[in-house]
Amino acid sequence: MGPAHGHPEVTTLMTTTNDIAAEDTPVVELKATGKSYGNIRALHGVDLAVRPGQVTCVLGDNGAGKSTLIKIVSGLHQHTEGEFLVDGTPVRFSTPREALDKGIATVYQDLATVPLMPVWRNFFLGSELTKGPWPVRRLDIEKMKKTADEELRNMGIVLDDLEQPIGTLSGGQRQCVAIARAVHFGARVLILDEPTAALGVKQSGVVLKYIAAARDRGLGVIFITHNPHHAYMVGDHFSVLRLGTMELSAERSQVSLEELTNHMAGGTELAALKHELAQVRGVDVEELPDAAAVSS
Ligand SMILES: Nc1ncnc2c1ncn2[C@@H]1O[C@H](COP(=O)(O)OP(=O)(O)OP(=O)(O)O)[C@@H](O)[C@H]1O
Ligand SMILES: [Mg+2]
Hints:
This protein is an alpha/beta fold.
């Protein structure tokens, strides 16, 4: 691919320029992007930039537009306002396959796995390795087992037995297998829709660890969550959606966990709710716990 016969100095110069361009151009970028479903405006004026080796967290309450946003990026829906760019070029995907071809992989909460099939088989689901010439081509079981094992280990995921049905793994472990799978199949951007929503504290920690592992391997991660604590543990950038618009977009250095929690909770709304609760219960407002503490 590179200029094999070029002058050495020229080659170095070109590489440097490319590197700078690669660092500056987000892999995925939304500019004033919006989406309407008929008369319903689910998303409006959203800006987002996903860079390699960074975790971009998208937070928001129920109905805030989080899923709508990732459906645009993952090729399920098309935006109706603004721009959607991949590597700096405006795109409009018609199918998730087109997003995948650009290296945008999505791990949905209801993971598309076959519970009774072994772990290694699920790892290669839809992309099975084969060997031998047609018409005697058959599944390369050994290679699939070996590769799945290696890739899981590379991510630091140790499972006792890859023959066990994936349905016997914990929810957290299944999320981890899905992350390792996306990494193996060359994802550049990994979208995770509420991967910790149904998990306990310990399992959430495990999933967060592999989000960090994917980031360290250079992937740009979009982490959807309504838990500011989880977001703050791994996030480089935080975007808070509220009723379809972006209420906050901040780098890690610009926002504290407390501020993030307050944004998520809708500080003023919670304060109003607290007053109502105090009236109902006939107690003084000060006797109720702090508004920010309620949301966690
Ligand atoms: N296919 C659709 N047709 C019509 N309206 C939709 C459709 N999908 C979503 N909406 C609306 O768009 C808004 C945003 O929904 P979205 O699913 O993106 O929110 P969310 O942040 O993912 O919420 P949750 O936390 O509940 O998953 C909601 O008001 C929802 O009712
Ligand atoms: Mg959703």
